[in-house]
Structures are given as C-alpha cells and as structure tokens.
C-alpha cells in the first residue's frame, strides 16, 4: 500500500473514534503541546503550495501553531525547505509523513503526533544520510518526545510493507571512488570480476529556475553484471546514491552535458557500495572491448 494511502486510512480511523476516545486523546496530547510550547490557541489553515512536500497526504488543512512551535506559514515554509534534499534521497518511505505530521499537522480536534517507533525508524535510516552531509539528527526531533503506544499516534510501517522495503538494496554514504579516465580493457574486466555488479549509466545534471539542481540518469540502465541488483529498482537506487553522495556526483557530472559511466560495486548486508567508476568516453574502445569480452570471460 502506498504511503499516502496508509496515512489517509489512518486519518479516517481517527475521524471515526468515539467521543470518549477523543477525551483520552486530548488528555494525552496536553503534555505534548506543552513540551513543544505551542500555546493553547490554534487555528486551521489550508496547506499552501509553498509546503509542497506536505500536499497529497490525504488532508488539505493544517494546524498553526504546529508541533514544532512555528506560528506562520512563511516560517513553516522556511523550515521545511531545509528537509527537501533529505527527502529526495528516499532515506525512508515514511520520512515525509513523519515530518509533515510535525510541520503541517492534520486539522482535527487535537494534535495527532507520530509514534516513537515511526520516529526511530525514520531516524535510523535518515540520520546516516544527514551525517554524510555533515549534519546531525536535530534534538528537536528527539524520538523520546513521542508516545510509545500505537493507538494514539501515527504508527510505523506495516510488517508487509517494512519487509518489502528492507528487501530493496539501499545506497549508503561513502567516500567517492577514484574516477578512472584512463584504463585498459583488462583492468575493466578485473573490476567486473572483483565486484558483485557492474552497470552502464548515462548521468546528467538537471537545473531548476530556483537555482537548485539534481543529478539523474538518462535512458535505461544497462546491466553488465547484475548480481543482486533488482532491475525494477536499479535506476532509482543509482539516483538515490547520487543524491546521498552529492560530492561524488558533483565530481562525475561537472556540467550540464550528459556523461556515461560504468559503476562497479557490491551489495553487503543490503547496502550498495560503489567501488570502481569508469568514465566511458566516446572515442575510447577499451570499455567496448571489455563489455564484449565479458560475455565469454572467465574470472
């Protein structure tokens, strides 16, 4: 089930709660409200386009002040903008829901907060990505602040969804491999033998009017050695790797012109690590020879 559908069903369940349950919720959330110092008076406002990351989650109105103590839309927009890059990495499928439940809480009779289990799951997956960009998990999102129970808060992934998520190979923060511009076909064959996978990809830098940019793949990903990579997820995985390891992506894609690379690496304990990077240049024949010989090569 897609994340936004799960969130929508959760909200529908909350709407159907009995009045006695709502009273219990109000009592439970009183402590949380004081903890975030949001005050006693809140109002419902439409989620504006400036908060694009919190749209299409199953509700259209949010409460202000929110659970982070922000009192105006410009303030919320400024603070959520800091999380856009992290969300683009796909570090956890519930990261957006978790953050929006705090920055743009749904407009019910009281605040619906994330469960501690959801916070911990998102933190454990996303904190390493923040660390890769020299940032730490903020104290304002300390998971101990959230309730441990699942009945009065937004729960974590269902077991089926969690198992499916855990099966997908995930890119990790790593040091940038040396980008090889000069090599022999024997060196490339050796890399194919020594690594669990090797793929040929065309990479480019996409620029936006806002001045931001992102690194993406163009066309299909060609498998030289598939290994444990999943065909339907590999393109997305590579783009996530580029976003997480932006320093490496910046070295590989220095301008808006598309560039072709062979990435060779391993999957260890579900983590994708790129070990060798070959720049495939138009007039170079070594990689062409290597990929042709690989079909009959014995390591």
TrEMBL record:
Annotated family: Belongs to the secreted frizzled-related protein (sFRP) family.
UniProt-annotated location(s): Cell membrane; Secreted
Superkingdom field: Eukaryota
Main location: membrane
Protein name: Secreted frizzled-related protein 2
Signal peptide per UniProt: none
Membrane topology (UniProt): Multi-pass membrane protein
Assigned keywords, A-Z: Developmental protein, Differentiation, Disulfide bond, G-protein coupled receptor, Receptor, Secreted, Signal, Transducer, Wnt signaling pathway
Gene Ontology annotations for the cellular component aspect, listed alphabetically: extracellular space; plasma membrane
Lineage: Eukaryota, Metazoa, Chordata, Craniata, Vertebrata
CDD domains attached to this UniProt entry: NTR_Sfrp1_like (cd03580)
